[in-house]
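ingest -> validate -> predict -> emit
validate: passed (alphabet ok, no gaps, 263 aa)
predict: started
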Amino acid sequence: MQAKISARQITKRYPVKGQEFTALDRFDLEVGEGEFVCIVGPSGCGKSTFLRILAGLYEPTAGELIIRRSSGLNGGAPKPLNSMIFQEYAIFPWRTVLDNVMFGLEMRNVARRERRAIANAYLEKVGLRRYKDRYPYQLSGGMKQRVSIARAFANDPEILLMDEPFGALDEQTKTLLQQELLRMWEEDRKTVVYITHSIEEAILLGDRVAVMTAQPGRNKHQLRVELPRPRDPKIKTTVRFTELCYEVWQGLESEVVKSMETD
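emit:
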């Protein structure tokens, strides 16, 4: 599998109160084209920092990041390199649901009729077509996050970056959105880097799980999730799913203890 993302020896330092804080220290990760990689680690280990470096929001202090862009087109315009979905509901309160989903396409000058058709199609996929004229304040938290997911997929990026997108949701809503995400991802197998605190979520969604050390964040080890696709919540009842969760926890437990001691 060709590497879509190659992160080599990525280090990120910040000045904090006159001292230097190291969030990431020589972090390495490769992500294949079309691979779904989940990253888990204790709080404050630099997971979100790494994702923001991938998104181009932060510059690394040291190291090399290579992202191999394809030449694919969408709607006559080059595909965006990435779209990011945050835990917070990062949608515009002054725009309707439909206008929010069309935003990326609008910024790329996709014709209005075409972007409406694309946005409506993705709202149909996430079950929000009949809410297209509503505003975010009229939606539940789960519905707002479905708008974010629809917007990201509608923009057809090469890479999806997801920072604990379901972390603020109740368990029932989270389960439904995990199913929707898996179903939509199966259609075109985009490259995904997904940050989560949940080991179960990482095993359910990912092709591979990277475990990070306590701060400063390094790649401690990786686990390939050899479970059949497509997946649904029933797979959580299997012995192999439980074994994989425990394998991840074995690598993570000592890092969580270190993080708690540091705090």
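The mean pLDDT is 91.
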